[in-house]
Design a protein that fits this description.
heterotrimer; A alpha+beta; B alpha/beta; C alpha+beta; A: alpha+beta; eight-stranded mixed sheet; four-stranded antiparallel sheet; 14 helices; 31% helix; B: alpha/beta; Elongation Factor Tu (Ef-tu), domain 3; Rossmann fold; seven-stranded mixed sheet; six-stranded antiparallel β-barrel; 15 strands; globular
């Protein structure tokens, strides 16, 4: 059998009832699947054994400080916006033991501990979250010191992105250029079509890399027609039109840099709890604490790395105090890093417009409003 | 978009970037009551030789790591670090004895622009422990003295007892080819030198602003005041380098703690030119 | 040997570099050169502040005498600095002791000679007082910065 080529396989259609074919194909190629699933009243990212584990028929309602699951009146598998869980957790664990040292004949001997999970497929990753992976790649993979933990978990990943059809009010991917369609970096891009019609409910699959082609080749699918292509475009166009939140990127990095003394930072600090929820749910935030955890009884010393947040008072600790003791300065640091200095450091925005920080802020702070106010310049009067 | 200073220093060794390389303490010198200079020798693996202004992450078993500047370039595989005991990991490091094995990661960071200072007058201003990262500069300059114009070293400390490298300082003070001035915040019995702030000594220093380059290291307040004094006298902000200190944990631009505005102190710094960093250091809590 | 007039010497001193000629000439008329050997007391706390000194060369240790501990040197004045503000205000008494740290050449200016002139010539008076005010500001700022104890150990980095 000749190997399938891109041209033959690049756009195929899989009926919704055959979605497990995709799972089978992934398993046959040695990719266990991670994807969205319902747990504890939210859509989180976890291991999936079959399409039954997907949040079929579930949607979400998200707003500032609001997240709830809602039942859809169709059987869409991916009828929700940004899941509550992040894919970040699986690439960049919240807790890692980097190495363990023990003393051998008076000197420490260090054993590096890097967990190689091997091949994994991320199925159902949105354009925004896919862009977030690319953002984190620049930080953790493409710097002068590639991170060993991230590198090991990033290798052998197959990314199966899904276009967004049902954005939430918190979404602003269109402003950030990350969605609703699946952008660069995906091995396979899927669009769910006609979920409300059990007969016509299907997925358009586009293989974009050799690895993607290899998987799609195993799936019993027909070639996509112009009608399928049009329907997919319509899904994305409609999703884009449903997005209400916006960020005006023009001049934003400069405006935030110049707005360090804007009174808005003090105003938002009156509401901000510095709880750090936004940084925990943000798919690009990468700050960590690195520390030793000695075990006197076992005679070992572990170098541990855990997620940290610039909202923590101790984050900027130096000489007995914090460089940024006030919540105002910490909020400013987060927002300015995300939308301004990230460009200087890594050549991209740090924000992908997933909106999770808005939904999961316990007091409903909307970062898009805050940066808009600061960028607008000093208030008159 | 502002352009960042490209890292000039060499990268880390081939092993995992977060894994320390064992080094044995071969010499311990008590500089002051709370400051110790350790000379370290590699146990087996050797790290890349540091340049003046760089730092390593020094690891003490069970305690953790701290960023410490190199305080001399040994010219061989040895490392020289001067550490001030401010409790925590530094306390453990300062209590090291000959034969103890510590861990070293690095070297990291951008060093002092010694090459760029050739052909210029050089004003070196050190406050407190800030003399440690600047000592290798003085060594390099004196080793190639004719490559530089007028060279001045102004050293500030809390009291005479807290001046570092006393014997060396006295030696430099006696030389004719370097103008050394020391000034303490408060006097003590037997101190016959100046009492005041470092800018008080700088006032009396004749400088030609057009041909002067400056390297300043010490508490941030002191660096701010000194840089301001020099720019008031016509020295270009781009000709002044400072060494920025922040909370550092990974030292490889991935933990996020050391940011000052767009810069990562561990990688874009710690040495940064005053013209790029001045506006950042004058914003409260940046 | 170059002989300079007092007015020329004042003109060559950093403190007086930008005063108008007529004020400078008046100051010259109230000035004389003095030399102190190392260890000489230049002024004594509590005594009448008869004027001020413009230091030409040498270092002056300024401080306060503490019983059983001797002179606690609190700051150093260098060539180009002035020493003495108390002559401007009641009770016209020195607040500090000053001792020559090494050989000091200075210009001593007398209050009795200067104050009446300054009263009658407010423009010149204003200028001189402004110059002193700037020196005082720099002294205060130096004192503040040292009170901050930036090299101190007070704040602990406990990681």
């Amino acid at each position: 059998m000749t190997s399938p080529t891109f041209a033959e396989l690049d756009r195929v259609v899989l009926p919704a009832a055959g979605l497990d074919d995709l799972f089978d194909a992934l398993h046959a190629e040695g990719y266990p699947v991670l994807g969205p699933t319902v747990r504890d009243g939210a859509i989180v990212i976890g291991p999936l054994t079959s399409s039954d584990d997907l949040p079929r028929g579930w949607g979400d309602e998200q707003d500032a400080g609001v997240y709830r699951l809602v039942r859809r009146d169709d059987d869409a598998y991916f009828g929700f916006a940004a899941p509550a869980g992040t894919w970040k957790r699986h690439l960049f664990p919240a807790h890692s033991v980097l190495w363990r040292a023990r003393v051998v004949r008076g000197a420490p001997v260090i054993e590096e501990n890097v967990d190689h999970p091997g091949r994994r497929a991320l199925v159902g990753i949105r354009g925004c979250d896919l862009a977030a992976v690319a953002v984190q790649d620049r930080v953790l993979l493409h710097g002068t010191h590639p991170d060993p933990v991230y590198s090991a978990r990033r290798a052998d990943l197959l990314l199966v992105g899904v276009s967004c059809g049902t954005p939430a009010s918190t979404c602003f991917c269109t402003s950030m250029g990350t969605g609703p369609s699946v952008g660069g970096g995906a091995d396979i891009a899927m669009t769910e079509l006609d979920a409300e019609d059990p007969v016509r409910h299907r997925f358009l699959l586009e293989a974009r890399t050799d690895a993607g082609v290899t998987v799609v080749a195993r799936v019993a699918a027909r070639r996509a027609t112009a009608e399928d292509d049009d329907a997919a475009d319509a899904v994305v166009r409609r999703a884009g039109s449903l997005i209400t939140r916006t960020v005006d990127g023009a001049g934003l990095p400069e405006a935030l840099r110049a707005g360090a003394e804007h009174p808005r930072w003090d105003e938002v600090a009156e509401r901000c709890l510095s709880c750090g929820s936004c940084t925990m749910v943000c798919p690009t935030c990468f700050c960590t604490d690195v520390r030793d955890e000695p075990n006197v009884l076992a005679g070992t010393d572990d170098r541990v790395r855990v997620w940290a947040s610039c909202f923590e008072l101790g984050h900027s600790y130096l000489h007995g105090g914090s460089v940024r003791p006030s919540p105002s300065a910490r909020y400013r640091q987060w927002a300015t890093h995300k939308f301004s200095t990230w460009w200087d450091q890594f050549g991209t925005s740090g924000c992908v417009g997933c909106g999770r920080c808005i939904a999961w802020c316990p007091v409903g702070i909307d970062v898009t409003e805050e940066i808009r106010a600061v960028a607008a310049g000093p208030t008159e009067g | 978009m502002s352009t960042l200073v490209e890292p000039r220093g060499p990268g880390a060794s081939a092993r995992g970037s977060m894994t320390p390389v064992p080094h044995r303490v071969v010499e311990v010198v008590h500089e002051t009551r709370e400051t110790v200079t350790l000379t370290l020798e590699p146990v087996s693996d050797v790290i890349v030789a540091p340049v003046a202004g760089q730092f390593t992450m020094l690891w003490a078993w069970g305690a953790g790591e701290v960023p410490i500047s190199v305080s001399a370039l040994a010219g061989d595989d040895r490392l020289v670090h001067t550490i001030r005991d401010v409790a925590g990991v530094t306390k453990t490091l300062c209590a090291s004895r000959q034969g103890d094995v510590l861990g070293v990661r690095g070297p990291y960071g951008c060093g002092w622009g010694i090459d760029a200072a050739r052909g210029h007058d050089l004003v070196i201003v050190a406050g407190g422990i800030g003399l440690a990262p600047l000592r290798p500069v003085v060594h390099a300059v004196l080793a190639e003295r004719s490559a530089f114009g007028r060279v001045s070293l102004v050293v500030g400390a809390r009291t005479e007892q807290e001046l570092l490298f006393r014997a060396e300082l006295d030696g430099w003070w006696h030389r004719r080819d370097i103008d050394v001035r020391t000034i303490v915040d408060r006097s003590s019995p037997g101190w016959s030198g100046s009492v005041g702030v470092v800018t008080g000594e700088l006032v009396g220093l004749e400088i030609d602003p057009a041909s002067t380059r400056a390297m300043v290291c010490g508490p941030e307040v002191m660096m701010r005041v000194v840089a301001q004094h020099l720019t008031d006298r016509g020295v270009a902000a781009s000709a002044i380098e400072v060494s920025v200190e922040r909370n550092m944990q990974c030292a490889v631009k991935t933990c996020g703690h050391c940011q000052v505005g767009p810069f990562f102190a561990c990688t874009d710094g710690p040495v940064l030119p005053w013209d790029v960093v001045a506006s950042l250091l004058t914003v409260r809590e940046l | 040997m170059v002989v300079t007039t007092m007015a020329e010497e004042l003109a060559g001193h950093r403190f007086f570099r930008s005063i108008p000629v007529d004020l400078r000439d008046r100051l010259a008329g109230c000035a004389r050169n003095v030399v102190f050997a190392p260890g000489d007391r230049i002024c004594v706390e509590g005594t009448h502040a008869s004027g001020f000194f413009a230091i030409r060369t040498g270092r002056v240790n300024v401080g306060i005498y503490v019983p059983h501990q001797g002179l606690q040197v609190l700051e150093t004045r260098h060539a180009g600095d002035v020493l003495g503000f108390s002559w401007l205000f009641p009770p016209y008494r020195w607040q500090i002791d000053a001792v020559a740290g090494e050989q000091v050449r200075a210009i001593e200016l007398h209050a009795d000679c200067l104050l009446p002139y300054l009263e009658e010539h407010p423009a010149g008076g204003y200028l001189l007082v402004r110059m002193f005010a700037q020196e005082m500001e720099e002294t205060i700022q130096s004192t503040r910065l040292r009170l901050l104890d930036v090299y101190g150990r007070d704040r602990v980095h406990a990681r």
